[in-house]
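Following the same procedure, sequence and fold were stored together, as reproduced here:

>
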Amino acid sequence: MKESILWADYPSWRQFSWLYLMAGLVAGRAWLFWRFGFSGWIDWTVGAIVLLGTAAIVRHWAHYEISPARLIVRNGYTGHEISGVELAEVDQVEIQQGRIASLLGIGTVVALSNRQPTLRFRGVNDPEGVKRRIEIAIRMPRELNVAVM
């Protein structure tokens, strides 16, 4: 039986903004080469397209999931599990965020455990919200034993 998912997302497109910036610079150089009649502008255009394609592919490489029992990182293309940690084993949840990531509204949510490897959700939108979701999932009862009378 497939476990239910409480939250799932890919890394933010802003996580790869440096690739978009580089693609823009390469495209600008292609335009300058074309505008002033230099050869090689087609190569620069192809380079810009390759950078944009790379950003799109890499963004969907990881898929993050919170289930009632586990935190999971899956390959976004195959669905295979890359890593996971049991919520019961999570001792602490932290956010790692540099200045630029803070400006972009993204961050890395880290689930720390003494018994299992550390799990990271890198470049997620609203890292505070993701941290809150993990903490709520940790506190949720595994089974609801409600007696119906």
